[in-house]
Design a protein that fits this description.
single chain; about 220 residues; mainly beta; Jelly Rolls; 2 domains; seven-stranded antiparallel β-sheet
Length: about 220
């Protein structure tokens, strides 16, 4: 019981000092995509808000080189990132660091045209894109967006703890099925936000308690 109670006391002290969730990196699409932008890939740019903007990136990848990338109205914002010519496996992607943060989560908004893809899956990589794990499947509904009057279309999910305190985090929003629609229309994304709590710096007392717990455990053995 000594080992357990000392460790619990030290851990409680560390957790109690954690800050509330902050924006690590966020994209509200403040700038427009250049007219007549086509190609299989497109890089929109770094996050425009958050603590770790440097090195972040929003991009998209399609199998079709004739994909048109554009920026119609967002959901309560001037622009969104939109693209057409969707096929299964095509995706939007954000990449960022979460160094110094834990309890990481992601929020975003998507809508589609009447013939745009509906069935999506969010996937996570923390090894530079070598492997991905599923964060869950979701359906994108057809909702009318306005640059001035936002509507509720948010998707939100907690990331695996593997995303905590990482130098490289990649999240893809990819098509897995057309659902009740086809893949010939458009799909747009807006207001992407990755959030987390700052990893606390343990107080000297908390470190001493955890160290003492380990010492007691060794002596008991």
């Amino acid at each position: 019981m000594i080992k357990a109670s000392l460790f619990a006391a030290g851990l409680a002290s560390i957790v109690a000092s954690a800050a509330s969730a902050d924006v690590i990196a966020g994209w509200s699409m403040p700038t427009a995509v250049a007219a007549s932008t086509t190609g299989a890939t497109y890089s929109y740019g770094a996050a425009n808000s958050g603590a770790l903007v440097s090195g972040s990136m929003l991009s998209g990848t399609h199998s079709s080189a004739s994909t048109v990338w554009s920026s119609p109205a967002g959901n309560g914002s001037t622009y969104a990132l939109s693209s057409n010519a969707w096929n299964v496996g095509d995706y939007y992607q954000i990449s960022l660091a979460t160094t110094g943060y834990f309890s990481v989560s992601v929020a975003w908004e998507q809508t589609r045209s009447s013939t745009g893809p509906a069935g999506f899956e969010a996937v996570l990589s923390v090894d530079g894109g070598s492997t991905f794990s599923s964060l869950g499947s979701y359906t994108v509904n057809q909702v009318s967006w306005s640059a001035t009057v936002p509507v509720t279309t948010s998707s939100f999910g907690s990331l695996a703890s593997a995303a905590d305190n990482q130098a490289s985090v990649i999240i893809r929003f990819k098509v897995v099925t057309a659902g009740t629609s086809t893949t010939t229309g458009t799909n747009r994304i807006d207001n992407i936000s990755v959030n987390g709590a700052v990893l606390p710096v343990p107080s000297p007392g908390a470190v001493a308690l955890v160290g003492l717990a380990g010492l007691v455990a060794r002596r008991r053995r």
